[in-house]
Amino acid sequence: MRSSAAGAALAGLLLCVAPAQAQVPGAEAGGTAPAPAPYTGLDLVTGGDYAPYTGDDLPGGGLVTDLVRRAFAVGGRRYDVRFMPWKRGYDGVVAGRFLATFPYIRTPEREREVLFSDPVMEVRQFVYLSNRSGMEFNGRTGGGDSGGLEDFQGRTICQPVGYALPAGLEAVVGQGRLTRQTPSDLAACVRMVATGRADVLVIDEFSGAAAIQRSGLADDIRVADRPFAVVTLHLVVGRGTPGAETAVAVFNDGLNALKRQGVYDQLLVSHTLQPAP
């Protein structure tokens, strides 16, 4: 690490993402759960290797997978969840082969293709830097899409296939002032940053810290002191899918019910620890 302070910051994040094994009440907390409707034939789909949110190796399929299943169950709907590469799953949702996918942040391109649910959760995006790079992120004008972009000019950013860059960084790439590398998955991006083949990775604090922890390369990566931005994660349904608006409404109602019942907060605790402010 570049300094003991940076090391402490990254270590703190790594401690935030260890999935807990505690059991939580089902969606029926505070009342009797409605009987599930017959299976519809359209699956939900998500990607793997995105701890603590989704992964077929995580308890309950990950935090967001667990939330999505329970939110639909409140409305009496039962869906299977399939894990596959992110781009294939998203393209399948846009084409109507699957009902919905998750978790996704809003981008202008996605807004044209899918309907977004209410926010499933809010997260901070952090800037992860290679110790082999001289790049710094200061966020001098507030970070996010409105500031700090000058720190990325002339650098190489890693963006896994199926993921999206923040709009401001996408614009810098489009202007030719930032080079983009797009390996197959998040783990590959972590390795590229750790070995200096990319200068930087911008991703939410939980999945970034979990991926670094799994890689065993924490000593080769540092995290900037300031977050890049705050974003929300959503379930999305293809705009052309029959019943798309109804599916989103059912999910939103179920999600709100989980929050009223206290199940939502219990799931957050059972799947991940919240970071220190």
Describe this protein's structure:
There is one protein chain. Helix content is 34%, strand content 17%. By secondary structure, the chain is α/β, with parallel strands linked by helices. Strands 1, 2, 3, 4, 5, 8, 9 and 10 form an eight-stranded mixed β-sheet that branches. Strands 6-7 form a two-stranded parallel ribbon. α1 (4-15) packs across α7 (205-215), α2 packs across α8 (244-261) and α6 crosses α7. Mean pLDDT is 84; it is low at 1-39, 141-146 and 273-277.
Mind sketching the topology for me?
Blueprint: H1 4-15, E1 44-46, H2 63-74, E2 81-83, H3 86-94, E3 100-104, H4 108-113, E4 114-116, E5 121-130, E6 156-158, H5 167-174, E7 179-181, H6 186-195, E8 200-204, H7 205-215, E9 221-223, E10 229-238, H8 244-261, H9 263-271
Parallel strand pairs: 1-2, 1-3, 6-7
Antiparallel strand pairs: 3-10, 4-10, 5-8, 5-9, 5-10
